[in-house]
Design a protein that fits this description.
about 25% strand, alpha/beta, seven-stranded mixed sheet
């Protein structure tokens, strides 16, 4: 196991039970309301469209709230995550919600060792996933290997321009971190997670990478996918730039001033070529 996987896995293993217990993830609402969808998937629905009957896999699914939401839209879902603690929480949520979802523990790059290749109609990846992967090319190859010919990739992710902004500055949008993929990771040491909790993380060090939008698109094209849609958004579902954002009624955060200055997230869709 490489150092980045060991460090990041330990961090997410600590986060998983904290997130499952948090009001932000709202797991009890999923259990109480069989029609409830996560804010993330609800945002995706207009572009995602009808996925009834699809066989789908959610890569880097974490504790499964978005995976469960996709299942409630009619897809036969599998979820994959490298954190065993997250998989425990995801399985518990599915069981308590009465959903049949297959969850597997694996690193993304090894997905086809635990899931059948070329068997999925939909590969879904949500917010805050790609930054934990060092190679976008290897990720794109994995996506292609999982999809059937004609199968779809759907990803909504934080915009690489946002990831390059220093979130510690409340007085300006300051570009201080790499936009493009680099071999060297960004190394963070943070005892806090993004939900409200008094618990401090012991495994506080993580490694992350940015990937430029052109790099992502080129990697997908290289591995046999055609881009069918790309939309950049002026919102993102967490307070990514504290002191500079406001939250709307749908749980989306936008810049308080001149929101047209910066794309905060994007939705990218692609289809695997036939033949």
């Amino acid at each position: 196991m490489s150092d980045y996987i060991k460090l990041n896995k330990a961090n997410w293993d600590e986060r998983a039970p904290l997130h499952a217990a948090s009001t932000e993830y709202g797991t009890q609402t999923f259990i109480d309301d069989a029609y409830h969808l996560s804010d993330v998937v609800r945002f995706d629905v207009p572009l995602l469209g009808d996925i009834s009957g699809f066989r789908g896999v959610h890569l880097q699914c974490h504790i499964g709230t978005d995976t469960l939401s996709l299942a409630r839209l009619g897809a036969q879902m599998s979820g994959l995550d490298f954190s065993p603690a997250a998989i425990v929480q995801a399985r518990a949520l599915a069981e308590r919600s009465g959903a049949l979802i297959e969850y597997v523990e694996s690193e993304v790059y090894h997905a086809t060792s635990v899931l059948p290749p070329a068997s999925f109609d939909l590969v879904y990846t949500g917010i805050g996933a790609l930054c934990w992967l060092p190679s976008i090319d290897t990720w794109a190859r994995t996506v292609s290997d999982l999809l059937k010919p004609g199968g779809r990739l759907f990803i909504r992710e934080g915009h690489p321009m946002l990831w390059s902004i220093n979130e510690g500055r409340e007085d300006a949008l300051s570009v201080e971190f790499p936009y493009f993929e680099r071999e060297e990771p960004l190394v963070w040491d943070d005892e806090c997670t993004y939900v409200e909790t008094d618990v401090r993380l012991k495994a506080s060090v993580t490694h992350a990478w940015n990937h430029g939008l052109g790099e992502i698109i080129t990697a997908l094209l290289t591995h046999g996918l055609d881009i069918t849609g790309l939309v950049e958004h002026q919102s993102i579902p967490w307070n990514a730039l504290p002191g500079q954002m406001v939250c709307d009624d749908h749980g989306e955060y936008r810049l308080k001033e001149a929101p047209w200055r910066l794309p905060l997230s994007y939705t990218l869709q692609a289809v695997k070529r036939r033949g």
